[in-house]
Structures are given as structure tokens and as C-alpha cells.
Amino acid sequence: xxxxxxxxxxxxxxxxxxxxxxxxxxxxxxxxxxxxxxxxxxxxxxxxxxxxxxxxxxxxxxxxxxxxxxxxxxxxxxxxxxxxxxxxxxxxxxxxxxxxxxxxxxxxxxxxxxxxxxxxxxxxxxxxxxxxxxxxxxxxxxxxxxxxxxxxxxxxxxxxxxxxxxxxxxxxxxxxxxxxxxxxxxxxxxxxxxxxxxxxxxxxxxxxxxxxxxxxxxxxxxxxxxxxxxxxxxxxxxxxxxxxxxxxxxxxxxxxxxxxxxxxxxxxxxxxx
Amino acid sequence: xxxxxxxxxxxxxxxxxxxxxxxxxxxxxxxxxxxxxxxxxxxxxxxxxxxxxxxxxxxxxxxxxxxxxxxxxxxxxxxxxxxxxxxxxxxxxxxxxxxxxxxxxxxxxxxxxxxxxxxxxxxxxxxxxxxxxxxxxxxxxxxxxxxxxxxxxxxxxxxxxxxxxxxxxxxxxxxxxxxxxxxxxxxxxxxxxxxxxxxxxxxxxxxxxxxxxxxxxxxxxxxxxxxxxxxxxxxxxxxxxxxxxxxxxxxxxxxxxxxxxxxxxxxxxxxxxxxxxxxxxxxxxxxxxxxx
Lengths: 273, 292
Description:
Chain A is an alpha/beta fold. Chain A is built from 10 helices and 9 strands. Helix content of chain A is 33%, strand content 22%. A 6-stranded mixed beta sheet of chain A has the order 5-6-7-3-8-9, sandwiched between helices. Chain B is built from 14 helices and no strands. Chain B has helices at residues 2-15, 17-42, 46-55, 57-67, 71-95, 100-122, 125-133, 141-170, 172-178, 181-204, 206-220, 227-252, 256-274, 279-284. The A-B interface holds A 55-57, 73, 75-77, 81-83, 86-89, 92-93, 96, 99-100, 103-105, 132, 134, 148, 152 and B 42, 159-161, 163-164, 166-167, 169-179, 181, 224-227, 230.
């Protein structure tokens, strides 16, 4: 384990989930400062849940997520969460990135507006400030959302499936931007589905299947054995799954949670009675 | 000519105190209520205003049962009942599997039945009609003051929370990632809705108060595609509907509340047809396109 000063986020036996069913189960490890990590895994494997855990939107059922002091977080949720029919202009959406600086009522200054214009220029959308967001293509909208991340100017950047449904040119531009963020010393974690893309651009990878399968250098994580293990994972929700008793050892306690299809695996691993 | 115009449009307000009061009351209400309606619409909660207008009834009715037709107890009762229903429906959707629309439906139906029952314990049909349909032409000082305070509070709350309200509609997950205000904003907004419905009830009654809130907002949507402008257009429509409804009521001896709401309805129908994103414009715009 790297020492504390190098860690941007550390997970100590973290279980995250919904309605007492785990979506990320007993995760331990850390995101090093300045690391560029791809978070991979099938649908329902806990990737988005983990991001919500890091941002603090979802409290762990057990364990602890520690964000290093001074870290600021920029989080880009999946596009499907955005109301594209809301009457807002591109500049309004990008300006949301100023929240940490200006808060609820702080006035946006001339410098703020200049930053918004510069961010839009960086993502190749100069002159789009006054366009309604309902007129943008999927790729343009994703560029606008990246501009918002730029405006947030955070040390820890979390992107949830930023590459879904965008063309090759946009993909290449956005990957360049992510690489630049890492070069600037920012910690970046990205949920990605395309393994070729992960191999080509992400030095580190975390493979999830509702539990951690592997978390290491990308080439090690993408070893056939790991991918096979993750593929065996099935998206299930077993109402009658037995209770998980790992937390009996947790000095801070924790919410009892049930196991789904992985109950059998736990039994084999000796985690459950 | 000028005399005729004066007689039709100015004299009723210049010469009759009750019309002046009704005008000031409904204009205040237009200022606060219609921007709230814009946000209800943009949050896809257009019918929530209707549900909440029923939810305040048991509180109003309890005030009426205990103190008669006295504004203050009925107002406080209405605010209390509305807040209880809004908080309960929101809380249930957060801690159980039930969505907010379902829990709100359950609560408002219970509230409505309870309200009618309470009114019937003491009042006559006339009293019930007063509570349900308001008395815009009989606004007293106390009622005017209450509406004024509600409008001022609404304006202050909207000014403070505007950015958060927009963020919560546009990208709620993002707001939750940068601020703990997310869930709080929803409750603050519901409190503003309740306040304005109670204000509206004083002038228009529980059943029609939602009309001045939602119809101008729905009409404004056909004229602009920016939230700020939409709120201003909605205020203008609500104010114009108030004036027109009061005049209609005065000259044709119609009940004022329905006349105001029907005026807003007429503006809605006109906007639907003639607005920049209304039916006619979107039909005739076909066939024309820009070069880039």
C-alpha cells in the first residue's frame, strides 16, 4: 500500500449498495495522486456506485472512504441523468462548474466568464455559448460537460461513462484532454467499457464485478484470467440472500447487508458462515 | 372614445375600493406565484401544484372550524398542512420504494377528504364555497398584508435559491456532487409552492389558486426558451390575466376567481396557437431552413 501522502482516495473495506444489497463489496485499496485509472466491469458491477461513494453522495454501508485533505472533486455523471429539455444555454451548463468558487449566490465575475469561454474553446466549441442545450448533438453535449469539468479545476476528476455514443473525433479529443489532466498532476478515474481504449490510454485499471476482481497496472488487470472471472459475474438481486457477517469484525459496525449471487463464492472464500 | 376606454378599463379600479384591493392582491400574487409555476413545470411537476392545493385544505378548514372566517388561523393552518404533506411525501419517497407522485397522491386525497369533512362539521354550503373558491373581491387588510408578505418571502427565496433550483432541474446528480443542498432545495421549493398556494387561496380559493400559478407558466413556455425570461413572461401573463379577469367580472357580473383563471386560460390558448414555439409557428417553419 502506498503511503498516506501519495493517496488521493483510500478505501478501507468499503461496502456500498442500495436497500441492504451490496453493489461494491468489501473494497480495499487506494487511488494514488496523479493516477489515471480506468474503472471497468459489466453493467451492474458497481462502477457508478463506486463513483457516487467517492463523491459522498452514497454513504458506505460499512467501511470507510477517505479523501485526502485538500482534494477537490469534479464529477461528471452519466449523460442520461441530465434533463436535455431544460431551457438552458451552453454557458449556463458550463457555469455550473463554478459552484465550488461562487456557491449559491456569489456573482460570476468577468474572469469567471473568461474561464467559461476558454474552456469551451479548449473543447472545440468556441461560439457555442448562447446555444440551447437541446440543440446539441450527443458529442457536442459531452464536450460541453468536459468544459464544465475544466471550469471546476479540481484535483480529483471522476468521469462516469464519458465515451458512450460519441464519434471517433470527439472520442480522440476527449481522451487527449484526459491525458492532459493527468500530465497536470490531477487524479483521474474514468468508467470505460471499451477495453482497447483502456489498453491504449489508461496506465491503471480497476476491474469490478460487484467485488474487486483486480486493481493494478492495466496490462495485469486485463489478463484473460481476470476478465474470465469478471465475465462469470451475473447481474442478480437475490432477495433471500444470506446476511453478510464480515462486518462483525468492523470496529465501526456497519449496516447488515445481503449477498446476491456471490453468496456461494463467499462461502467458498470463507467469508460467510 | 377616451371616456369609453376610461369607463371600461380605469373607472372600475379608480372608483371602487374593493376592485383596487383585488387588483393589488392579484398583482402581488402574480409576482410570486407564476415564477414558482415555471419551476413546477420545468421540474415536470405541473400537477403537483394541483395536488398541493388540495393538501392545504384540512389546515385551512381547521383554522376555519376553530376561528371562523379569520385569515390568520386559516393561513397558518394551510401552510402547516401543506408543509406536512410535502415533507411526508418527500420523505416517504426517499426512505421507501414508493415514488413521490404516488405518496403525494395518497396524501392529498386523504387531505382533501379530511378538509371537506372538517368544513362540514361547522359550516354551511356557503362557507365551503368560500373556502374552495375564495373571495378576491372581499380582500381585507389582513389578507392583503398576508399576500404581500408571502410575495416578498417568495421573491427572496427565489433570488437566493435560483441557481440551486436550476441546477437541481438540469443536472441533479451534479448538484449533489458539489453541494449538500440537493435534497434541501427540493423541500425549500415545496415550501415556496405551499406558501403561494395559501396566498392564492386567500384570493382565489384552494381550487383556483393553482390556476394563476400554472396557466401563465405553461403559456410562457411557448414564447421563450430561457428560464429567467420564462419567469418574467409568466409574471406579465398572470398580471394581465388578473386585470382582465377583474374587469370581466366587474362588467359581466361574473365570479372574479374563475374569470381571472379563464383569462389566463385564454392567454394559454393564444400562446399555444401563436407563440414562437406554438402550433402555427412550428407548422409554418417547416420548409424553411438556414444554410448552416
